Amino acid sequence: MAHYCDTVGIDLGTTRSCVAVWDGTQVHVIANESGDNTTPSWVCYPDLKQRRVGKAAERAGTKYASSVIYHSKRLIGCRYGEKVIQDAANLRWPFRVVDQVVTFLQGDGGAAIQITVAGQPKIVTPEEVGAGILSYLKKVAEEFIGRPVKKAVITVPAYFNDSQRQATRDAGRIAGLEVKRIINEPTAAALAFGVLDSHSMGTKNLLVDCCRVFDVVGERNVQVFDFGGGTLDVTIMQIEANSMNFLVSCRPRSPAPAHCLPCQVRATDGDTRLGGEDIDARLVDHFLDVFQKHTGVDLGNAKESDKKKKALAKLRAAAAQLKIDLSRMTESDICLDELYQDETLEAKMTRDEFESLVGDLLERVRLPVMRALEKVHGGMKAEDIDQVLLVGGSSRIPKVQQILQEMFPNKELCRRINPDEAIAVGAAMDGSHQYQMVDVVPRALGVATANHEDPSRQFTTIIIPACSPIPEGGLIVTSSFGTSRDNQTGADIEICEGEERYFDENTHLGEFELSGLPQRGRGEITINVTMSVDKDGILTVTGTAEGTDIKKDISVRANKGRMSEDTIRRLQTENEEYEKYNTRDP
């Protein structure tokens, strides 16, 4: 009888999600009731008591077009007004994105979602939507394992910031899970690709000899290209074979299996505003124009009526399928009978037409690839990359693979493992206690410092550089600063994420004040600022004044307006109530 690990691995994706578990010898990707290894990241509220998740919610999307939510991962941990929120208007979501400040939640302007349930407006946070999906996957895993599941490793895009990671952890807690770790998706994928051994471990779909995957002899540089539904992540890994001298990023918690490939994250970059859903939205816009030219009906303003919302939902599903078809075929079509009233949409599209229509989006993958190479300490060139691992459904698009082949000529694009499942497999392996993945800080972390020439624009002083490795116990770095003027009695410590010279050009994370400083001359009081990044990539900042008892610290979470403990407990109760009435995939 299999002895399943008490911690499952979950890929909480923008468009689809996946759960896997380690049984002591291999990883199992767990199928849902429909027999599918991945589940649509959809949630629907048909009435005030019921919540549908997965394929059931996707199917309900046409009937309950005003009550369905998808792609919520794009909003999780984001403040209302951020660029990613503004982009939402271009994606033609059937729901509204609203400001948490004007809702029942206490926050600093976090994004929330407004839908209509039983004719009444309902406000839902992205964390609640994520919790619904996680609860569903938790139940799927429990039915497979045969006992309650209480622990999980959950993956996030490598370029997720601190607030997005905290919000993902909150979603897990609302779902009743103890989130053992938050790990980066490309790192999880690399673990799945790099450690699988046909003699000792595998999965039903992922059994591949690691030496055949990488053709590794000695040290290799591998780029993980993770192009999913909502984000693009590019991570450069250094993988070493035939060695028991493990690098910092892959330490065995028990003796390593044969052919184990230790791996170290060297650099990461990405685009949190580029994914398959952006391609779908471009296709939808195109076919809306086609429909309007042939019928005179404008479906673009779907908020006018439920009928238009339902028509748009059908078109969106057809456009997504067309994109998939054109990755396998050179021509496909859309035929939607009576899409709106008595009007039918019939249209064809070739792969060349598709590539012309979305070409500017696909070309955007080049910049993160080049930036990741530049971020490697000492620099790295394209010719230094030995292989490119393709992860995420959007990596299947032929034009994307063509671009990568142009950037890495004569290098192998590794397509031998299912890109939709590799991340969950890596998460399950991390949760198995066989391996510990130690990642890097994706973006530089710093503080504001005085600009005496132009006091209105503060400089950025980097404390933790981008791509700094995070050891098992966390990364702790301290920098010292002097007071900037005579008789200064307080110091404002402002924290940012980014590498721009001027502080206001970076992402502001939080701030706090050290007050009560003794009055001394400029520079005579030393302020020590310590930044601590834990294994989940979550930041805490501490400020102290030397020679005094003055000390203050801040978890960036508190300043970002994330959920209070009371709110989490209330949502846990609501989630449990929904589970009693939850309609699962038949």
From TrEMBL:
PROSITE patterns: HSP70_1, HSP70_2, HSP70_3. InterPro entries: ATPase_NBD (IPR043129), Heat_shock_70_CS (IPR018181), HSP70_peptide-bd_sf (IPR029047), Hsp_70_fam (IPR013126). Keywords: ATP-binding, Nucleotide-binding, Stress response. It holds the Pfam family HSP70. Residues 562-586 have a biased composition (Basic and acidic residues). Coiled coil: none annotated. One of its GO terms (molecular function) is ATP binding. Residues 559-586 are annotated as: Disordered. The keyword Ligase does not apply. Belongs to the heat shock protein 70 family. This is Heat shock protein 70-like protein.
